[in-house]
Amino acid sequence: MRGDVLNVSLVGYTNAGKSTLFNAMTHAGVFAADQLFATLDTTSRKLWIEGGGNIVVSDTVGFIRDLPHSLVDAFHATLEVAIHADLLLHVVDSASHARDEQIDEVNKVLREIGADQVTQLVAWNKIDLTEAMPGVERDEYGNIARVRVSARTGEGLSLLRSALAEFAQAKAELRSRAMAEAENDAKHDYIN
Ligand SMILES: Nc1nc2c(ncn2[C@@H]2O[C@H](COP(=O)(O)OP(=O)(O)OP(=O)(O)O)[C@@H](O)[C@H]2O)c(=O)[nH]1
Ligand SMILES: [Mg+2]
């Protein structure tokens, strides 16, 4: 979406640490509290990252199971930003006993709003509460799938920054290739 900026949307179960991570990434004054729906509206910040150029990061409202029916529409509306993102940064509270159910719940909502085709990067958060060390995990194709971080202590944040830079570079490459092809097609049209 939209030119040479990588649009990153932070999604995740409520209390996973999205706002804390957003804060740590942008140094913005987002209210982070240990309560449901601390974040009521979408907040976006543009930042420049080493090796990746400009990225726009958006915090979103937390996903929750059995949302009251009256809130479902408003909830989905605030998640619109996720549909248009280049990348979903799926923040997971890795220290939670319910983390697997929470991941499933988030993916279910993403399917419901039509954002399940957007590339996902998992931020395996709160490693300060577990035995895990900061690190980057890749899938069988070599793509970054998961970064282990702590939004609170800042561990792993430089790895997250590099991961985002890698996604930004990949997007920029795709974009310049598409532009070159379009230019080629235009030349062809002119000649024919
Ligand atoms: N120990 C630890 N606590 C964290 C970490 N990240 C966030 N927290 C805490 O987890 C709680 C929830 O964090 P938030 O950033 O508000 O979570 P959220 O995902 O934005 O929550 P909602 O906006 O309600 O969906 C707060 O008490 C944070 O201080 C972390 O890496 N380690
Ligand atoms: Mg929040």
Question: Characteristics of this structure?
Answer:
alpha/beta; 192 residues; binds magnesium ion; seven-stranded mixed β-sheet; globular
Concise synopsis of the structure shown:
This protein has 192 residues and is of the alpha/beta class. Helix content is 38%, strand content 23%.
Tally of contiguous helical segments: 5
Oligomer: single chain
Strand order of the largest sheet: 2-3-1-4-5-7-6
- SSE pattern: EHEEHHEHEEEH
β-strand percent reads 15-25%
Structural class: alpha/beta
Distinct ligands:
guanosine-5'-triphosphate, magnesium ion
Mind explaining what this structure looks like?
With 192 residues, the chain is α/β, with parallel strands linked by helices. It has one domain (6-191): 3-Layer(aba) Sandwich (Rossmann fold), CATH 3.40.50. The protein has five helices and seven strands. The chain has helices at residues 18-26, 69-78, 80-83, 99-112, 157-191; strands at 6-12, 43-49, 53-59, 87-93, 119-125, 135-138, 144-148. It has a seven-stranded mixed sheet, sandwiched between helices. Strand 6 (135-138) and strand 7 (144-148) form a beta hairpin. The radius of gyration is 18 Å and the shape is globular. The relative contact order is 0.17. Guanosine-5'-triphosphate (GTP) is lined by residues 12, 14-20, 32-34, 36-39, 62, 125-126, 128-129, 150-152.
